Structure formats: C-alpha cells, structure tokens
Amino acid sequence: MHFELVSPTRVIFEGEVEEINAPGIEGDFGVLPGHTPFLTFLNIGELIYKVNGQERYVAVDGGVVEVLPSRIIAVVDDASPSAEINLKEAEELRNNSEQKLKELSSDDKEYLVEKAKLTKALNLIKVANRNK
C-alpha cells in the first residue's frame, strides 16, 4: 500500500509499505493492505512503518491520518525519524521539563505546556533508542 508521511515543512516518507502502526488519539492502531477506510487524529507517539520487512521508526507530534484500502496519508504537526534524533538534546529537553514541572503547580498556566514538552521529549528518547 502507498504511504505518505508529511509535515508542514517536508515529506518524511513516500512509498510502498507493508504495514503501519500509529498512535491514535483513542489508542495505537495498525493498518494492513485492504484496511477499512477511516480518518483519525494522531497523538504524540511512535509511528512505525514496515518497508521490505524492515521497521522504520518516527516520533510524531500529533496530526491526522486518512486510511484508504490501498493508500494512507499522514499529515503530522512535526516528525523526527529515529536516525535524525539527537539523543543528548532529547535528554536535555526531558531534564529541563522535569525540573520546570517540579517548580510549577498544576494550577500554573505553564504547567500543561511543560507537561507536553516532557511527553514530546520522552517520545523522542524512546524512538532514538530504536537505533541502538
């Protein structure tokens, strides 16, 4: 099936895939050829697609995906393929967010922003570690 993974700034991948697993807002889902069509939103998480038997990993920051029987289109807010993630920078983002969250209460305006940054950093770390 044909898969397109695009962000506002670039095409991350376009080509034939055997399978896709993605972080939907209602939970992770998998897609194989001939899947029933649907449209859903994506959460921050790990998107995995399989090409020639090899899995490829991408950290995505939300978006939308349309599944058709022979084509899938994912438009994401941001995406980082595992090979492009700087693990040291991701760990610094995590540490900074954890520190800021310790200084904030859940009533502070910045709390949810920092919580989202921490979720993104943890996702980047998880996907980056797939290269090891």
- Most strands sheet: 8 strands, mixed
**How many domain units?**
2
Shape category: globular
CATH superfamily of the largest domain: F0F1 ATP synthase delta/epsilon subunit, N-terminal
The total of beta strands comes to 8
In the CATH scheme, the class of the largest domain would be: Mainly Beta
Could you state the order of secondary-structure elements as H and E? EEEEEEEEHH
Helical stretch tally: 2
Mean of residue pLDDT values: 95
User: Kindly, what is the distance between the CA atoms of the first and last residues, rounded to a whole number of angstroms?
Assistant: 28 Å
CATH topology of the largest domain: ATP Synthase, domain 1
Query: Low-confidence spans: pLDDT under 50, at least 5 residues?
Result: none
What is the beta-strand fraction?
over 45%
Radius of gyration: 16 Å
